[in-house]
Amino acid sequence: MITFEAVRKQFGDGTVAVDHLDLELPTGQITVFVGPSGCGKTTSLRMINRMIDPSAGKVAIDGKDVRSQDPATLRRGIGYVIQSGGLFPHKTVLDNVLTVPKLLGRGREKKRALELLERVGLPTSFATRYPAQLSGGQRQRVGVARALAADPPVMLMDEPFSAVDPVVRGQLQEEFLRLQGELGKTIAVVTHDIDEAITLGDRIAVFREGGHLAQVGTPRELLTEPADDFVRNFVGRDRGYRGLSFVDSSGLALRPLDGTPLDEAGRPVGVETFRAGDSLRLVIDLTLTSPTGTAVQVDDTGRATGVVRHGDVAELLEKRALEKQR
Amino acid sequence: MNGISNYLSQNSSIVVDALLQHIVLAVLPLLIGVLVSLPIGYLAVRFGWLYHPILNLSGIVYSIPSLAVFVALPYVLGTRILSPVNIVVALAIYTIALMARTVADGLRSVDPALTDAATGMGYQRVRRLVEVELPLAAPVILAGVRVAAVSNISLVSVGALLGVGGLGALFTRGLQLDYTAPILVGVVLSVALAAVADLLIVLFQRAVTPWSRAGQGV
Fold first, then answer.
1. DSSP string of A179-221?
2. Which residue of B has its CA nearest to A48?
3. Domain assignment of residue B100, yes or no
4. Is the pLDDT of residue B218 over 70?
5. Lower Cβ count inside 10 Å, N or C end of chain B?
6. Which DSSP category does A236 fall into?
């Protein structure tokens, strides 16, 4: 667990970047620092690996004050990913990945580095390439592999997926979450993008100007119970709709399949489908984009089990709202 | 043409000696100058307030006529006026004047995001300089070395006016004897030497910066 206790950072010119920050980053979870520029989120992140030292207060990893440790030693134990990957252009992909192992005197771990490349979705044949020979998304993947190379328990990521186009960003986020599901690192991510925060975060810390925390909570809490107008505005106007990402669709009354084209195995043809347990946001989106206004549910084998219409989703939500009031 | 081949066949050892001496007198100060420039250029970047003073000082030093330096140095160093040490020291000073700025500019050209990434991964200052900053500054620094090498090779000839050897000695001899063959040989070898030195540095640069050509045509 990473803890901030009454942390303050005032720069030489008098600017207060972070003011009385108390925050806990739970072990094995992704905590996202989000907020407008100048809110102190990057400063806070950089105080974890001592790229910046606080003016007052304490930052600790598992109870140990980071300032009691030599900065370089501390940093070699913390994965670090920056925007665009921050790869060294004069080193091959393999040497980039081996950066920290080499600093630790373990530069021979070539096999592990190659495994890591595969793990982040790159062919091992990329090992001998230079960063200039990769696309933006591929560089970002190498950046993640590099941060993981020495198997640090903690990772810091500063705008890790900002420099790529939205499609690639979505892919990278999804794969990153899959990877984190296997690795269970304690991760701090900085982003200015609330959607990215909601996608990646187990917990989200919303910062406001002047380095104050506006709210800390799960994505769902942020969307359904914003603490104040600042968070409400920052989260955005369609937070009600986005909040449905966290509401599961079980309990929807299914209608019969009539008219839905099926193949011999009973699988629907030419339409996108959902499964019991997918989010209501997905179901609504399917009904809105389908020409017939219906979303088709399938079971684990892909066979169609029934359809729902927009009205059915609204009814379910109404029923749940009534139950809540009781 | 006949005159030149006659001259060469009768004076080959003189010409070869002059050429070798020329190479030593140009390359030795180049190496010394580059080695001294590295820390100076680094300090100019590390302590930002030093950058402009160093820039101005090197500009002034470079503008002093070489002949004046050659003549003045024996008084400063206490060497004999004909000592080749004067030439070596003078050219090392010119190399430093040229290279200190180039090294500083090369280091400043390194993307701060990369030095930040290096620090964030646990590089300490010296290792970061050697493994990250200097390799990335190498294209700029080596471009400066090319200029300094060619400049040194041409300045060594001026030393001949003081009676120090090198290919310049062929010019002075030719002028004294009113004999064009040694002058032509000296000019051609001097130009060829500069071209070869430049080529060698370019090849060296290609060998140490393979990454700078990566990504072309991908």
1. HHHHH--EEEEEES-HHHHHHH-SEEEEEETTTEEEEEE-HHH
2. B120
3. yes
4. no
5. N
6. -
**Residue B144 near residue B99 (C-beta atoms within 8 A):** yes
Contacts of A90 in chain B (CB under 8 A): 132, 135-136, 209, 211-212
pTM: 0.81
Query: Is A220 in the same domain as A234?
Result: yes
Domain extent, residue B85, equals: 2-208
H or E element that contains A24: strand A16-25
How many domains does chain A contain in total? 2
Q: Which pair of tokens denotes residue B199? A: 């080529």
Q: From CA A84, how far away is CA A99, in angstroms rounded? A: 17
Query: Is the Cβ pair A75, B118 closer than 8 Å?
Result: no
DSSP-derived 3-state class of residue A133: helix
In angstroms, the CA B22 to CA A246 distance is 79
Nearest to B122 among A72, A84, A132 (CB): A72
In a domain, B213, yes or no: no
Look at chain B and report how many structural domains it folds into: 1
Instruction: Determine contact, residues A280/A240, Cβ cutoff 8 Å.
Output: no
Strand A78-81 relative to strand A186-191: parallel, antiparallel, unpaired? Answer: unpaired
Same domain, A24 and A166: yes
Q: Which pLDDT does position B194 carry in this prediction?
A: 94
**Among chain B residues, CA nearest to A87:** B114
Q: Are residues A230 and A263 in the same domain?
A: no
* Residue that terminates a domain, selected from A225, A244, A263: A244
* pLDDT at residue B215 in the model: 65
Which of A244, A272, A295 lies at the terminal end of a domain, its last residue?
A244
Average pLDDT over residues A20-34: 96
Write the ipTM.
0.82
Compare all CA atoms of chain A with the CA of B217 and give the residue at the minimum distance: A133
Q: Which residues contact B121 (CB under 8 A, 6 or more apart)?
A: A75, A76, A80, A99, A100, A103, A146
CA distance B199 to B113: 33
